[in-house]
Amino acid sequence: MRRRVPFAFSKDVQVLQRHYIDRNTSIVLVRVLDEYYYLLVSHSSCSVLKKLSEQEISRIEAKESFSKVFFKKLSRMQQRDREDRE
Fold it and tell me: Which residues contact 50 (CB under 8 A, 6 or more apart)?
């Protein structure tokens, strides 16, 4: 069963990364407007671990996520395969 995320489609609040510590606890990187935070999230609470500095934010914005790079590469490979078949 998937949990409902109230801000899932908001442009103002965005979950960028989630790393699970255990089954019910995770560390989440979120962007709220123009500020970034690391949060410790459990099934019953949420705490701000750190507000990121401008330097840390610029490093995060410069990186592309693994899935984005992977699917971009995969689509190029599929395109080449189609061209080779034609």
Answer: 37, 38
